[in-house]
Amino acid sequence: MDGAFNRRYIPVDVKKMLLRLGAYIPPPHLSLASGVSSRTLRRINRLWDTTGAVVRVNMNVGRPRKLRPLDIEYMQSLLDHTPNMTSMELKTALEEGHGISVSCNTIDRACARADYTCKQLTRSALEANDQLKAAFVATVGNGEYTARQFIFVDKTCINRITPRRHIGRSVLGSRAC
To answer: Entry's SUPFAM superfamilies (predicted)?
Structure first.
């Protein structure tokens, strides 16, 4: 049972050095001198003979992605231009623009991997005018009126631009507007 737990990491440089020394020193002597088992030395030699490398490299880790980086970049440009696009609209745009058909869940996961989060859309009301606001502040700020003389009606939260969509996507840390 001792052999089950005596795995240890051997750096790539050490494996290459053991491979070079193996050409001059017999494997039993090299095993004793380096503290590496003869089985590990055989494995390093076999891997070098078959692949030309001393470590195995996994080429594809995980399932292949359906959306290529170019498709994700296209989605990001769409979301930067119109942040209130739904997943279904993004799906349709991908089908028309790139000829790729994916599910809405795939689009949502790709947006999450690209750090796009759902946020509440905020836009200034159509009635908001900076010049009128500055003139009002200049008139009221001269001290002619007291605070008891004012009644305010706040219409700045009225949004007549997008009455049905209040959620949009934007990069993490930035506002969606």
So the answer is: Homeodomain-like (SSF46689)
